[in-house]
Write a structure and sequence with these properties.
By secondary structure, the protein is an alpha+beta fold. It has helices at residues 5-20, 24-38, 40-44, 92-99, 105-110, 120-132, 140-156, and strands spanning 56-60, 65-72, 75-79, 86-90, 114-118. It has a five-stranded mixed beta sheet with strand order 3-2-1-4-5.
Length: 157
């Protein structure tokens, strides 16, 4: 049985602001292994090597939350406070549509719904990484859920 995508998005709209208020150590305890698992293949394939240990910051503007991340070897590191060389910021639904390939990063950028600031060259590389992640590099259930929810978010926007 298919799950009702509009209901899932509406539930996430209600739940994510509460999750964003959880203590940072608790968020990190969930987020770090989740990202390490989801991004394991792209990390293993060297897709994050361009970072060279530098920090990037991802901010979800409508949830008022952000995390800095970097990849050292095969290990993803998260830090709520680390100073980053580039910042990527957008609302959660825009990031969902971006990750699911239902929205083009350039289109979001030019409509001022995606902000990339800091080191321009690194920012462009991060944008290209997001835009170029291969579906085969992500776990199939994750990609399927991203695609479905991203399609619904795009339909509603």
């Amino acid at each position: 049985m298919a799950w009702p995508d509009p209901l899932v998005l509406a539930t996430l709209d209600r739940v994510l602001p509460r999750v964003a208020r959880l203590p940072r150590p608790l968020q990190a305890a969930v987020l770090r292994p989740l990202l390490q698992t989801v991004l394991a293949e792209p990390i293993r394939a060297g897709r994050f090597d361009f970072l060279g240990g530098r920090w990037i910051r991802i901010e979800i503007t409508d949830l008022d939350i952000g995390w800095s991340l970097r990849v050292e070897g095969a290990r993803l590191e998260l830090d709520a406070q680390a100073s980053a060389e580039v910042r990527v910021a957008a609302a959660w639904r825009d990031l969902l549509m971006l990750a699911s390939r239902h929205e083009d990063p350039d289109a979001l950028f030019f409509r001022r719904r995606l902000v990339i600031d800091g080191d321009t060259e690194l920012g462009l590389a991060v944008k290209n990484l997001i835009d170029g992640l291969d579906a085969q590099e992500l776990p199939a259930p994750v990609w399927s859920a991203l695609r479905r929810l991203g399609a619904e978010a795009a339909r509603q926007s």
